[in-house]
Request: fold
Amino acid sequence: MDVNTTIIAFIYFIGIALLLIFNEINYRRLNIKGEISRKFAHFVSTLATVIFPYIFSSHWYVLVLAIIFFIVLFITKNGTQLKSIHDIDRKSIGSYLLPLSIYITFFISEQLDNKLLYILPMLILAISDPMAAIVGISLKKNNHKIIIFGIDTKKSIFGSGAFFLSSLIISLIALYFNRISFDTTTLLIAFLVALVSSIGELLSWRGSDNISIPISVILVLTIFI
Reply:
């Protein structure tokens, strides 16, 4: 085990722990809605992991971090700690799935020796997912719920639209730097990534989009790259 990498993993643990504490303090002092504080933590913590492929040479480091934070989230679920994460009106397992999602995505990326398979899914998960939720919550007028075959998806037109547009932009940028080319292939793959991940987000339930989004992105990338 590399000592320097172990130190970096420990620093990440401390950093994410401080983020959760900071988020909890703001939630309590500023009376922030649980949905907002939860999405803030999701955004910052997931975005912070984007560079994992450049600092961790083995998935075991990521696994240990994922297990630790899964345990923390599980223990605090029914307690008074981390209400900034757990204080929501809906049933969701998303907070538990996030550490698992990060590890699975990293593991697949490592096994296929392609950093893009980790970086792009995490960027979309970190940015597009919270954006969709915040837009859906903030814009109420004419923001109709999406119903498929009589089933209420709990998602809104504006929220899903924000997810698609943001994931399209993120994909275009990431694919350009990966392929060093802005051609029709880049446009097509970016469109498919945005479309399929949007469908994955739309059809998910109880926070399962933390898994469905990165997996859907990986599927598109492995097929077309």
Observations:
- The mean pLDDT is 89.
- The radius of gyration is 18 Å.
